[in-house]
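A further point concerns the way the authors explain their paired sequence and structure data. Nothing conveys this as quickly as seeing an actual entry. An entry of this sort, consisting of the sequence and the corresponding backbone structure tokens, reads as follows:
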Amino acid sequence: MLEEWQTSWKNGDTGRKIYNILPSVSLRPTNWIREDVIFFSQHGPFPAYLKRFHLSDSDYCSCGGIGTALHYATKCIYTVSKAHEEARAKLRTRMAEKGRQ
């Protein structure tokens, strides 16, 4: 059963962002906090997600970029500033840690 699940996960079309972080399936929980799940799954109140489910007409951020969680955390001129440098450093650390689990 686990082998079949792993094959399906490896060859699937969905969940590729999470697959890049967690390439192996497991019966053990990952202990992710809610914010990590929202960020890494790209699910949440982001324009790209809302448009995907026809809850918005546009997937663009007001700065002109595609409104994903990663965009807001790393590129958006409205959210990226010197004041956010510490938060971005923590995010990079968490992303690296999630990739090693």
About this structure: The radius of gyration is 16 Å.
